[in-house]
Design goal:
Blueprint lengths: L6 H45 E5 L14 E5 L2 H4 L7 E5 L7 E8 L4 E5 L2 E4 L2 E2 L15 E5 L4 E5 L9 H4 L2 E2 L3 E10 L5 E2 L2
Antiparallel strand pairs: 1-2, 2-11, 3-4, 3-11, 4-9, 5-6, 5-8, 6-7, 9-10, 11-12
Length: 195
């Protein structure tokens, strides 16, 4: 003979089933959340290791576009498939000490005939338009550089008065250029594309 459950027993059983279902649902949710976090971390590691590298600007040679202590991402992938263009802001191993990295703007491409007259850059006999160099940051340097060798790039800082660049150490070999400045992420009020 079966005894009927009292309303209180039914409620307790229903409560136990609901608690079990809730606990099972919570464990499932926690597992999904952990999986998502692990995937996000792996993607971030892949992006940082293979595609982008965070760097800190040290010095004032790229002002006004890049400030001392700005933090930015360098795209390490872009030049594996694409060309380096005049005007690109590149990161490269410093020719006089390859343990150090420098960041400068590409001014002269391989095969260009380059000269600097009273601070103005001439490429193949034509004056280069450089809106990224404010008048107060120009210098009065004059030099005949000559033809940029194959697979080498003439780089200069935008703050010409204080920049150590190809005027000092010569053109940079292509193999030493390992990325393009992409995105300033700190400080937040300067966040945006590096230009």
């Amino acid at each position: 003979m079966m005894s009927e459950e009292t309303p209180q027993e039914k409620a307790e059983q229903a409560g136990a089933e609901t608690a079990g279902a809730t606990q099972e649902w919570s464990l499932r949710e926690v597992r999904q959340w952990l999986r998502d976090v692990v995937v996000a971390v792996l993607v971030a590691v892949f992006v940082i290791v293979f595609l982008y590298q965070p760097v800190k600007v040290e010095g004032t040679s790229m002002q006004p576009g890049l400030q001392n202590h700005d933090r930015l991402f360098v795209n390490k992938f872009v030049y594996d498939f694409g060309k380096i263009h005049r005007g690109d802001i590149v990161v490269f191993r410093y020719p006089l000490d390859p343990k150090k990295s420098f960041i400068k703007r590409v001014i002269g491409l391989p095969g260009d005939r380059l000269s600097i007259v009273d601070g103005h850059v001439f490429i193949n006999g034509k004056r280069l338009h450089e809106p990224y160099v404010p008048l107060r940051y120009r210098d009065r340097t004059s030099m005949m550089v000559g033809v940029i060798p194959p697979h080498e790039y003439f780089v200069m800082g935008d703050h010409r008065n204080v920049s150590e660049d190809s005027r000092d150490f010569g053109p940079v070999p292509r193999k030493d250029i390992y990325g393009e400045a992409s995105l300033v992420y700190w400080p937040l009020n300067y966040m945006g594309m590096a230009h």
